[in-house]
Amino acid sequence: MEVIPSPYSTIFNSLKNEIEIKPLRVWTDNSIYGALIIGFIAQLFISLMRYEIAELKHTSTKFIKKSLSDLTVTVDSWGRKVKRYVYSNFDAINTMVLRLNWGVS
Fold first, then answer.
1. For 36-62, what is the mean pLDDT?
2. Mean pLDDT in the chain?
3. Mean pLDDT calculated for residue range 43-68
4. Is 48 exposed, middle or buried (0-12, 13-18, 19+ CB in 10 A)?
5. CA–CA distance, 92 with 29 (Å, rounded to integer)
6. What are 86's strand-pairing partners?
7. pLDDT exceeds cutoff 60 at 105
8. What is the DSSP string of the chain?
9. Phi/psi zone of residue 78: left (φ > 0), alpha (ψ -120 to 50 degrees), beta?
10. What is the number of other CB atoms lying within 10 angstroms of the CB of residue 52?
11. pTM for the full model?
12. Which of 36, 68, 34, 35 is CA-nearest to residue 49?
């Protein structure tokens, strides 16, 4: 007998193993729902990046997550009228994402 995974098991497997949602010490229903929503938003964000950037279509979620977590953005606005953004820890994946200039501020 062949077991066909449901779409829900695929999503939760991705949240658990790729997004790396860890067990949280939360007890209320709202806290549990909040943790799941954050995980779904992270998964959605990565899926949208794969959709927009053709080179990332076959890149593992773990690699995309690692690349974005390594990227550092420093905002220098001390005594200035204009903010200056300083980016560091570049690699190929986060460079592709930054080139899109999605207007994140």
1. 88
2. 80
3. 88
4. exposed
5. 40
6. 74
7. no
8. -PPPPPHHHHHHHHHHHTS-PPP----SHHHHHHHHHHHHHHHHHHHHHHHH-GGGTTS-HHHHHHHHHH-EEEEE-TT-SS-EEEEES--HHHHHHHHT-----
9. beta
10. 13
11. 0.66
12. 68
| CB neighbour class for 93 (10 Å; exposed up to 12, middle 13-18, buried from 19) | buried
* pLDDT tens per residue across span 73-104: 888 887 767 788 888 888 888 888 888 766 55
16 CB contacts (<8 Å, ≥6 apart)? none
pLDDT tier for residue 2 given thresholds of 50, 70 and 90: low
At position 24, the amino acid (one-letter code) is L
The residue whose two tokens read 């062949």 is: 2
